[in-house]
Every structure is written in structure tokens, then in C-alpha cells.
Design a protein that fits this description.
This protein is mainly alpha-helical. It is 35% helix and 6% strand. The longest helix is centred in the middle third of the chain and has 19 residues. The N and C termini lie far apart (76 Å).
């Protein structure tokens, strides 16, 4: 009985980690692509065309929206029911659709 040949699995070496973790197994094609991507990234870094730092957030509009949302303990966003309950009890100012937030208006 003939069986199909399975690709060999290769262990991908990662940066030294203090915590002992299981090795990550990938197939040979994935491993070669990972090495190629690492080499390309290293080359771009040497040419100073790639920065290792990340922006604090990717989309300005999503950041502004998240900053306007009320948060509960631990920083989690409140649900609509929790917001309504807080507005009824007077602990959260009620929504006023006529006013604009000073943080949103930008002089042009």
C-alpha cells in the first residue's frame, strides 16, 4: 500500500525566551518563507527604511471613538445597558446631541 509523502516538519528558532515554551512546528515551505522574510526585514533595517517601532494606534478615527466611550472598572468599555443605568442615576452625564465635543473640533 502506497502512502502519500508528507512534508518534513522543521522547528523554527525564535528569539531566546526566558519562559520555557514548546517549539513551533511548521512545514518546509513555511520555514523557508519565514527565513526569507527575516532576511528581507534585516536588509531593510540596515538600509534604515524599516522602523521597528510601532505607532501607538493605526487609525485616528477609531482612537478618537474609543477615547470618547465611557469606561468601567479596569478600563473595560461599558455596555449600553450599563451606560443607560448610570445616566438614570446621574453618575454619568446624559448625551446631548446638540453640543460638540471640544476634543473633536479641530481648527482648520
Amino acid at each position: 500500500m502506497a502512502t502519500a509523502a508528507q512534508p518534513a516538519q522543521v522547528v523554527v528558532p525564535t528569539a531566546p525566551v526566558v519562559i520555557e515554551e514548546e517549539p513551533l512546528y511548521v512545514n518546509a515551505k513555511q520555514y523557508h518563507r519565514i527565513l526569507k522574510r527575516r532576511a528581507a526585514r534585516l536588509k531593510l533595517e540596515e538600509m534604515h527604511k524599516l522602523e521597528r517601532t510601532r505607532k501607538p494606534y493605526l487609525h485616528e478615527s477609531r482612537h478618537r471613538h474609543a477615547m470618547r466611550r465611557p469606561r468601567g472598572p479596569g478600563g473595560r468599555f461599558l455596555t449600553a445597558a450599563e451606560i443607560a443605568e448610570l445616566e438614570k442615576s446621574g453618575k454619568l452625564p446624559a448625551k446631548d446631541n446638540n453640543s460638540t465635543s471640544p476634543t473633536l473640533s479641530k481648527p482648520m
